[in-house]
Amino acid sequence: MASKLLKRTFHISTWSACPPRSARSLIAVAPSRFFSDSNSQPVPATAGSSPLPPGPPTTPNDAPSPSSVSRYGSKRKSESTHSSVKDPELAKFAAISDTWWDSEGPFKPLHLMNPTRLAFIRSTLCRHFGKDPYSVRPFEGLKIIDVGCGGGILSEPLARMGAAVTGIDAVDKNIKIARVHADLDPVTSNIEYSCMTAEKLVEEEREFDAVIALEVIEHVANPSEFCKSLSALTIAGGATVVSTINRSMRAYATAIVAAEYILHWLPKGTHQWSSFLTPEELVLIFNRASLSVKEMAGFVYNPLTGRWSLSDDISVNFIAFGTKDVQ
Ligand SMILES: C[S@@+](CC[C@H](N)C(=O)[O-])C[C@H]1O[C@@H](n2cnc3c(N)ncnc32)[C@H](O)[C@@H]1O
Ligand SMILES: [Mg+2]
């Protein structure tokens, strides 16, 4: 039902230009019980223990640890008083940080997905900022931040497309790898990398034309507060792009059971089903952060070709493009 509505509400970004449509009808059907308190976790969780990967019908509580909240100090000037950091999540990425640029390693799915997600970003940002998507450097003149940039898999192509790129990640080892790799090419060596959280950068009152956080929101302590930080980093009238995994049964079966436990694409425990967001929840979270979702698309994997493509199927992997309201 919700998926059908999304298919009607959002069009899929392709190279052809289509006018953005309103997300209001979608917002009307989203479950408001997830958002009664902006400081609460949007996903309800219950305790449980099982040899199976955590997921439906019982899910573990993913509340942030006290140590994660204190990691970046308590002084806050931004709208957000929360740290987005979940230390156990960062530990997972720190453990495999030297494999970021191994296209056959644990980040293989991200490498394979990259052309598809870049096509969506190129298409939506060019349409929004009036840039030519067919130019070699379509993002010339745009300041873009890649939040949770990891080893720079996305930051580098964004820089090659002409953007002035800032990449931040809460894991220092990731930033070191990203720096070394970007310095191998003069075109990417001007990327500004920093071990930092979005909320910390908000304190520094930095702003960007476009704020991008791909495959990060399912690893942060409080998605709602995280999106508020993304919004605060976005200029009025700018763009925010987030990709993540749908909290659907299909995602549990494919993105967790198959990808982690059968195919071993990702280390076991990479994802917690309870930390995923449905597209409806993401739209509401965006809305509460003064961001309007204008376009949404799914990523689907073809096991025969080994390729990902854009689709109207948002039942597992999906990406949302929003714009920051002009107050
Ligand atoms: C699955 S990776 C995605 C990397 C990159 N965005 C991409 O798609 O290629 C998630 C990244 O988010 C980072 N991360 C997790 N929580 C974070 C937080 N609260 N603030 C900044 N980075 C965070 C992790 O260290 C990791 O590098
Ligand atoms: Mg993930």
The fraction of residues assigned to DSSP E strands is 15-25%
How many individual helices? 11
Rg over CA atoms, rounded to whole Å, is 18 Å
CATH class: Alpha Beta
Whole-number total of structural domains: 1
Q: Name the CATH architecture.
A: 3-Layer(aba) Sandwich
Which stretches of 5+ consecutive residues score pLDDT under 50? 1-49, 58-80
Average pLDDT works out at: 82
CATH level-four homologous superfamily name: Vaccinia Virus protein VP39
Helix vs. strand class: alpha/beta
According to DSSP, the number of beta strands is: 8
Instruction: Give helix % range.
Output: 25-40%
What strand order characterises the main sheet? 3-2-1-4-5-8-6-7
* CATH-derived topology: Rossmann fold
Shape: globular
Give the topology string: H per helix, E per strand.
HHHHHEHEHEHEHEHHEEE
How would a crystallographer describe the biggest sheet? 8 strands, mixed
Ions, cofactors and other ligands present here are:
S-adenosylmethionine, magnesium ion
Enzyme class: transferase
Pfam family, one: Methyltransf_23
EC number: 2.1.1.64, 2.1.1.-, 2.1.1.114
Binding site for Mg(2+): 215, 218-219
